Amino acid sequence: MNNYEIQSFFPLDQYLYNQEVSPRSYPPHYLKTLPTPRSNSYIRFANFTPTFPPIDVYLNGSIIASNLKFGEITNYYRVIPGKHLLSIYVANDRNNPFFATTITVPVADIISTFAFGFEDLSFYLISDDFRTLPDEVAVNFVHLSPNAPPLDLYIDGVLYFSAIYFKEATRYIVLDQKPLYNILLKIAGTDYTLINLPNMTLQPNNSYTFNVVGLYEGDPPLQIVTTLDGSTY
To answer: Is CATH 2.40.30 the classification given to domain 130-233?
Structure first.
């Protein structure tokens, strides 16, 4: 059994391609985790394991998610801060967990927990309690495709996230409010487009994560699962 501490991922500056894209490419103070009066924390779970069957998720022996299929993500659940036993079973089979770990949830935090992997199951835990101004949209990018090369992500033709490797997450960046956004995912350093998402709607005063999951040239295919994050959920 492993012990996992929740991490807030603000990676190295190299993950931001161009600071001149926005006058606030780095998260301003109001985008970072803010003090709140809540005493509980919140956690949600996603199954991003392309080669595993549907799973049941248990927290401290109580089922949290049942028959969670690849690409599916739960709502947030309220939890007491502290240590919790997280157990994963093949759906509808409670005989033996094929993964169990102790996670530590900080006070008044909002956590996303991603199950991912190819031959072995791993977990990725991110604090995603972020906030924006009413006329702004915040986005970040997580690479969870186990066999995909480093990736570039473009928004409206501008390279915002450059050479993101498997198991890496970016900083949030702030976008100006627009009716629609065009998203392109490319192999890093090339013009080879893997995914084209035109005319995507991102609501103002919200933060989102572009989760790249699935298999590169495999089944299930590479895809972007967009999640609405944290306190804007």
So the answer is: no
